[in-house]
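#lab-general

N.A. 3:47 PM
ok so I finally got the sequence cleaned up, no stray characters, all 187 residues accounted for. can someone with queue access submit it? mine expired

B.Y. 3:52 PM
send it over

N.A. 3:53 PM
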Amino acid sequence: MKALFDIVPVVIFFVAYKVAGIIVATGVFMVAMLAVIGWQYSRTRRIEAMHVIVLVAVLVFGGATIIWKDSAFIMWKPTVVYWIFAGVLLVTQFRKTTAMQYLMSSQLELPGPVWKRLNLAWMLFFLAMGVLNLYVAFYYAPEMDAAAREDMWVNFKLFGTLGLTFAFAIGQAFYLARYMPEKEGTD
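B.Y. 4:20 PM
back already:
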């Protein structure tokens, strides 16, 4: 359910972009994020810190995109969010309990060094995703005109980042499976 929550606004953004362009899609994205956060709050009476960070970034960069009619702002948003997440992970890397341990310890029981490696891996992943986002948005295929580059970035935002994140998470699951206790009586 949580993954669906994170994906729905991006899919809505993608569809709105294909129908009406980046400015309208950005406005629709902002409304979708507010709606999803409102729905989450109405159900749980709390909002996760990660979603607050994303919402603030969407409103700030989305607002700038709409005000100045410049897609560069919304194209910077994923990088800023990725790097904020990486920064949080970096800070907790030097604490007894890492951010990943804090977030996932109710679902996983892992040795301390494995939590540190998991935290470090996600930190590096977010740093790399931020760089990749900038590369796709502003540097890949310099011969493309602005509209083609924007279209490529929107496609990458939905399919590329989703695919890379899914692949990385699956890789982490295989890595963590080595540390899961064996179940007795599973013949």
